[in-house]
Write a structure and sequence with these properties.
- By secondary structure, the protein is α+β, with helices and mostly antiparallel strands.
- The chain has one domain.
- The protein is 28% helix and 32% strand.
- The protein is built from 3 helices and 8 strands; from the N terminus they run ββββααβββαβ.
- A hairpin with a 3-residue loop joins strand 5 and strand 6.
- Helix 1 crosses helix 3.
- The protein is globular and about 40 Å long.
Length: 149
């Protein structure tokens, strides 16, 4: 583990810390301490329907866990904690009383020509988080709420 830092439960290396915020050029705006591209929301809006199509393909996956997932919703969200992101909620029919949630965001400075790749990457990232050793669905779930992982 590098520097003892983690992101979404995974070890990361912090190469440098920015101590002063740069000036915000157009077409950007500052939202709750984050600098957000004006086109960032349009990027996620373009990714959303393609990502839904990608997630629909999970029903024909070879891996039983992926094939049985029941996708409930994929929405565009904005929060102070997570910034602009897509939020997925789904159920595992083997645990019908559990509603799971997973958040996904693209790299900084999204570009229009990355939309299709981003949608496919969302699906692959979800698959990795569900199937990789040491990851997967949480053992416990929040009764009556969303269990985010």
């Amino acid at each position: 583990m590098c520097n003892g830092a983690s992101f979404r439960g995974r070890p990361v290396c912090i190469l440098r810390t920015i101590t002063t915020l740069p000036k915000v050029p157009a077409p950007f705006r500052r939202v709750s301490g984050h600098t957000v591209s004006v086109v960032e929301r349009e990027f996620y809006e373009a990714v959303l329907p393609l990502a839904r199509d990608e997630l629909a393909q999970l029903s024909s996956a070879d891996e039983p866990l992926l094939a049985r997932l029941a996708i409930e919703d994929l929405t565009l969200e904005q929060s102070d904690e997570h910034g602009t992101h897509l939020a997925l909620t789904f159920r595992d029919p083997d645990r019908p009383n559990c509603l799971f949630g997973w958040r996904w965001s693209w790299a900084e400075d999204p570009k229009p020509d990355e939309v299709e790749f981003a949608a496919a990457t969302l699906r692959v990232n979800l698959e990795e988080d569900l199937l990789s050793e040491g990851y997967g669905l949480p053992a416990d779930c929040e009764p009556g709420g969303v269990t985010w992982f």
